[in-house]
Amino acid sequence: MKLNQLILAAVAGAQFAFPAFAADSEATNSTGATQSGTPPAYTAVGAANNSTGAAEIEDLKKEIQALNQKVQSLEQQRRSEQQAVTDTNQEQIQALAQKVRILERHRELDQESADAAAKSAPKISLGTGGFNLTSADTNFSISLHGYVQLDSRTFLQNTAPGVDGFIFRRIRPIISGTVFHDFDFLIMPEFGGSSPSIYDAYVNYRPWPELQLQAGRFKSPIGLERLQSAKYLSFNERSLVTDLVPNRDLGVELHGDLFDSQVSYAAGIFNGVADEANTGNSDVDNDKEFAGRLFFQPLKATDIGALQGLGFGVGGSYGNEYGSSDLTSGYTTDGQQKFFTYNPAAGSVTANGAHWRISPQGYYYWGPFGLLGEYAISDQRVKLTAAPGTAADLRNTAWEVSASWVLTGEDASYNGVTPRHPFSLHKGGGWGAWQLVARYAELNVDDTTFPTFANPATSASAAQAWSVGLNWWLNKNVLILTSFSRTTFTGGASGTVTKEPEAVFFTRIQLAF
Amino acid sequence: MKTFLNILLALSLVGTAGAKEIKLVNVSYDPTRELYQEYNAAFAKYWKAKTAEDVVISQSHGGSGKQAQSVINGLEADVVTLALAYDIDAISEKAKLLPADWQKRLPDNSTPYTSTIVFLVRKGNSKHIHDWDDLIKPGISVVTPNPKTSGGARWTFLAAWAYALEKNNNNETKARDFVARLYKNVPVLDTGARGSTITFVQHEVGDVLLAWENEAHLAIKEFGADKFEIVTPSLSILAEPSVAVVNKNAKHHGTLAVAQAYLEYLYSDEGQEIAAKNFYRPRNEKIAAKYAGQFAQLKLVTVDGEFGGWQKAQKKFFSDDGIFDQIYQN
């Protein structure tokens, strides 16, 4: 358009130039006309001049037309080129947009694949609870954990029978897990004793939390203190009351938690073991022992914080036991010294029939405060091996109460203390949790035991123990216990252990994961 | 002790005595969502009228091969309705969940409906795609799922191969080259047919979608005929999706009878009508005639006739290091 105007302007310019010629021509004509009669030759010349001008104008018009066409052609060409450029750009944009969409889709598919792979991949975790491997569908899992306890015992009395020194009290790696969703298992060897042994090994079928069936070797469901994991104990050793309940036994147990664990029950049939004893891999007689426990935490789910940590219940057992293996090898002090054993000065005693236990028990935890108490009766029929007619039902009793206070304010519980600020010397680290603990316990042997079934000179008929301690929970995994225990005895004046009170200072470094 | 266990058993029986709802799990392939949504409602109604029992059917969808693997890995399907017989064979062989002769238990080799592979292009078909030849031209972007995971993609691969063979006088080298060129034009391999449809329709990737016939019709129904059109190639393959009761699972769940009835009802007039309405080609001749107008007529090869059956086809083309792996990696 602009080019067109330019050419027209050029043509117009040419016509502006022509007036000179035109004026001359007109002047000539005018001159000729003013003169009387125009000379023919002059007219002819003028006509010729007119004819030439018209031709020139015609030529110029053609030239203008040609130029106009050329301009139009150029404009058309330019438009085509612009269109071509636009089309090319459009195609490139579309192609790029397509590439972007493809890349986006690839990313989505990659993400989907990654998500699918993540869903089907087993989950591995390592933390305060040990090493855990769980299948993607959570139907299978295996966990490696355990605990190690290094103790020191220092006997403070003048003629202590116990040996001062360090001892690996427990070394217990644990393999536990689940197969096919409902079947749990646990295997726990013990390397801390004089010889390695399997402490726990069981399978637990868990179709519902309310109804579970456990079979194997595990703790008999009676004593509260006994059922507490060793890694959560407030003192190095359990109290005198635990002398009267069994340790691990072989059997089958139906158990479960009802009403959000407000009620727990366990009932099982076991080989039957002596007080404080662990079972072997087989029974020593044909008779079995029934054991069970009912425990309530009725206010656990309420909003009453002060009462949520209240739990109480009762455990017990009944069975017939025969032979020396089913009779306790002795009751021990906190320092793990035997202060009472059956057998009189001459002869021996064996189990001879019914053996029942009952243990009312309870605890109360509120904030940093904890209280745990337990009473136990172990009533067992015994006889003299050499004189079977000399038999008796002997009823031994024991009780304990322990209290704790977490100085640093963390909650106390049956399952230990979790420090709010784990110990670390690095910047930002805390000092863990500190806990004061105290305990009193008594054990009384049936009076009729002496002298027929036990030697009053060497065995005490009763023991009373008090303990105080300070525990340092560095973090979820490391615990340092320190405590002092003093045990006094009734009777047994000539006994190595019982002739004077036992006083022991304990320490423990525990690693649990 | 024995008495105690008896009491427990009795209590558990009392607890289940009142339950009348039957749960059935149908593990299916990708594009059957709409078909079985409609069919399940019809069957539940039929079963309720027949037995007074409520049946609730849970669906699982995905690439046919992937779905079969899931069942092998433990997904407890009562029935499988997969894209091809080979995938159900795999369940039978690897997991032993149903007998090897499962195809004989229902009519038409346990394939109650059929389909084929067609092209879905964008409205106007600006790339002038009319037959398989057009798919291998440079600049054509083809969307199809991965034959390793998708049953539909395997049917597609075989259809393309059959076309190439026919065009090249059964020259396998040329057929291989043809298919290789085709897959060179595939920018995205989804794991299943529905994924590819989403890629093509929603993400606007590609010029042509190689689709199940029913899926192509569904895309047009869903997104409008003003956006897409179906191109029927000169040759394709008769796709025969297969169905089977997974005996061991159904027996374990106590659903054997209802599972069997569920599949048999696919052959009923109502089942066949539902299949046809969802653009599957019904086996029932009367109903096929009624819906003939919605299905294009074209030459259809069969996997048995052209490739010697699924076992051979799978091994040759889709096994690890098979022809597909070779051409796609190259």
Explained architecture:
The complex is a heterodimer of chains A (513) and B (330). Chain A is of the alpha+beta class and 513 residues long. Chain A folds into two domains: 2-105; 142-512, Porin (Beta Barrel), CATH 2.40.160. Chain A has four helices and 20 strands. Chain A has helices at residues 2-34, 40-120, 224-227, 305-308; strands at residues 123-127, 130-134, 141-155, 165-179, 183-190, 197-208, 211-219, 248-258, 263-270, 289-296, 309-323, 331-332, 338-340, 349-366, 369-384, 391-406, 433-444, 462-473, 478-490, 502-512. In chain A, the strands form two sheets. Chain A has a 16-stranded antiparallel barrel. In chain A, a hairpin with a 2-residue loop joins strand 6 and strand 7. In chain A, helix 1 packs antiparallel against helix 2 (40-120). The radius of gyration of chain A is 52 Å and the shape is elongated. Chain B starts with a helix and ends with a helix. Chain B has two domains: 17-114 and 240-294, 3-Layer(aba) Sandwich (D-Maltodextrin-Binding Protein, domain 2), CATH 3.40.190; 117-238 and 298-329, 3-Layer(aba) Sandwich (D-Maltodextrin-Binding Protein, domain 2). With 330 residues, chain B is an alpha/beta fold. In chain B, strand 1 (21-28), helix 2 and strand 2 form a beta-alpha-beta unit. The longest helix of chain B is centred in the first third of the chain and has 19 residues, at 33-51. Helices cover 50% and strands 15% of the residues of chain B. The interface between A and B is medium-sized, with 13 and 14 residues.
Observed structural traits:
heterodimer, A: 513 residues, alpha+beta, Porin, 16-stranded antiparallel β-barrel, two-stranded antiparallel ribbon, 4 helices, B: 330 residues, alpha/beta, D-Maltodextrin-Binding Protein, domain 2, 2 domains, four-stranded mixed beta sheet, 17 helices, globular, disordered N terminus
